[in-house]
UniProtKB/TrEMBL annotation:
Record membrane topology: Peripheral membrane protein
Annotated localization: Cell membrane
Family matches, as PANTHER family: CARBOHYDRATE TRANSPORT ATP-BINDING PROTEIN MG119-RELATED (PTHR43790), GALACTOFURANOSE TRANSPORTER ATP-BINDING PROTEIN YTFR (PTHR43790:SF9)
Protein name as catalogued: Sugar ABC transporter ATP-binding protein
GO CC annotations on file: plasma membrane
Molecular function GO terms recorded: ATP binding; ATP hydrolysis activity
Domain ABC transporter: 8-243, 262-505
Length: 517
């Protein structure tokens, strides 16, 4: 498919940060009207390469040709003005502004020098209609959920009539119907001659929509191939830097298929939890040393139940018991004192503090235990940080490196370490591997496995059925804010889970019986 004059040609790109070599001789070539996958482990250099292209970072070596012209953009706005739009995984719009204002920010339609609100609202509605989305564009963006905010970001990108659209994990917050709508938009862009760089980790999606793939590892471009001619297992092997035999022997997850050594003792019991509109009788039980998966479709109440258990959101009815004692958490601080920890779904918004160091982020929850008379012991803090950087294999230039400079997988490890240093009895993990690469994903799954083996209880939310099936002793299924099924280890299958999500426990039990027959 390679053409003589590609739309984008990046060659010999290099970039270093203090103590870290981010890119070495990296390459990326994208054709006109092509959907091009960019893949690699976290820390492979994908984000750095994109930021250099769009002017967020300066390059230290190499050349960039775009539409036949040598370019060196000084800012994302300059790249945008020259035909390159970027849709980031983490929504970077303004929540208090309206949907229409976010779509047309910086290029608002005007009439006689004044904002033409009627035209802006009409055009915003038309753009969203292309995405099969009908919402009130005059409402603040923050009044809509993350999935809709992601669609608004996509609408903004396509409004620029760009030559190249970069999509960084665009499906991470979308359900299946919304993903298919996005793919239709990508196909439209392709038919119009617009190129798309698709950064993603979900292999099925890459193979469904992309033409070619560029694989990166350790800051270098390993290979560019036609995706249809590249088997999935070979792609994973190249991303990990392993042979095919290694991947086929170990599989693609870090979970062991065996049950964990969970005890009969119930650690957590949440019964008939209710909260207006979001929880309508949700229940879950976790034993000591058990990994319980929490499954459900978008809007089923998984995150809402986790936040209610952790005291982050109030509950109107229901009962929570920890180690047989009834509790009522008024805040996360109460839950932490009771031995609970929560790694939130959105690590950028609810987890890391980007401009603080790895050390400060890791020890944030432990500061009260490290202080005497209100003064934090730097020595104890440093010992704790060194221990968990080593124990979890966190890749960083040092404890003082700003956490924002770490890859997504390593940021997630820092958040896990934040709770592990408190020695919790229960860890609630909301999408622990969302938006991270295959290698880091396997490392985090293996870490969860090891923690459960040592007696830590885990309540794990995941949108990936395979992750739940392989990593859980038991799976609780939610639908419309209610618990509709609880599947034991021997009953768990992808079909049974999907049946439970659609029709409840009776359908899952019937399907399990049919499979046994």
């Amino acid at each position: 498919m390679a053409q003589a004059n590609p739309l984008l040609q990046m060659e010999h790109i290099s970039k270093t940060f203090p103590g870290v070599v981010a890119l070495v001789d990296a390459q990326l070539s994208v054709e006109r009207g092509e959907v091009h996958a960019l893949v690699g482990q976290n820390g492979a250099g994908k984000s750095t390469l994109i930021k250099i292209l769009t002017g967020a970072y300066s390059r230290e070596g190499g050349s960039i040709l775009f539409a036949g012209q040598a370019v060196n953009f000084q800012s994302p706005r300059q790249a945008q003005d020259n035909g390159i739009s970027t849709i980031y995984q983490e929504i970077n719009l303004i929540p208090y502004r309206s949907v229409a204002e976010n779509i047309f920010m910086g290029k608002e339609p005007r009439r006689w020098g004044l904002l033409d609100w009627r035209k802006m609202h009409a055009e915003a509605s038309n753009l969203l209609a292309r995405l099969s989305l009908s919402i009130d564009v005059m409402q603040p963006l923050m009044s809509y959920n993350i999935a809709i905010q992601q669609m608004v970001a996509i609408a903004r990108a396509i409004s620029f009539e760009s030559k190249l659209v970069i999509m960084d994990e665009p499906t991470s917050s979308l359900n299946e119907r919304e993903v298919e709508t996005l793919f239709e938009i990508i196909r439209q862009l392709k038919a119009e001659g617009v190129a798309v760089v698709f950064v993603g980790h979900r292999l099925d999606e890459l193979y469904a929509i992309c033409d070619r793939v560029t694989i990166m590892r350790d800051g270098q471009t390993i290979e560019t191939r036609e995706l249809a001619a590249l088997p999935k297992v070979e792609l994973v092997a190249k991303m990990l830097g392993k042979t095919l035999g290694d991947v086929q022997r170990t599989g693609q997850t870090g979970f062991d298929a065996n049950l964990h050594h969970s005890e009969q003792q119930v650690l957590l019991q949440a019964r008939d939890i209710r909260r207006e509109r979001v929880l309508q009788g949700a229940s879950v039980e976790v034993h000591v040393g058990e990994v319980v998966g929490l499954a459900g479709l978008l809007g089923s109440g998984r995150t809402e139940l986790a936040r209610a258990i952790f005291g982050a959101d109030p509950i109107e009815e229901g009962q929570i018991q920890v180690s047989g004692q009834s509790v009522k958490f008024h805040s996360p601080a109460d839950a932490i004192r009771a031995g609970l920890g929560l790694c939130a779904e959105d690590r950028k918004a609810d987890g890391i503090i980007p401009y603080l160091s790895v050390r400060e982020n890791l020890t944030l929850a432990a500061l009260p235990t490290l202080a005497r008379y209100g003064i934090v012991s730097h020595q104890k803090q440093q010992e704790l940080v060194d221990t968990f950087i080593r124990r979890l294999g966190i890749k960083t230039a040092g404890p003082e490196q700003p956490i924002r400079e770490l890859s997504g997988g390593n940021q997630q490890k820092v958040l896990l370490a934040r709770w592990l240093c408190l020695n919790p009895s229960l860890l609630i993990l909301d999408e622990p591997t969302r938006g991270i690469d295959v290698g880091a994903k396997a490392e985090i799954q293996a870490l969860i496995e090891a923690l459960a083996e040592k007696g830590l209880s885990v309540l794990m939310i995941s949108s990936e059925l395979e992750e739940l099936i392989e990593g859980s002793d038991r799976i609780v299924v939610l639908r419309d804010g209610q618990t509709v099924a609880s599947l034991q280890h021997g009953e768990i299958s992808q079909d049974a889970l999907m049946a439970a999500m659609a029709q409840g426990n009776e359908a899952a039990e019937l399907l399990t019986q049919q499979e046994e027959v």
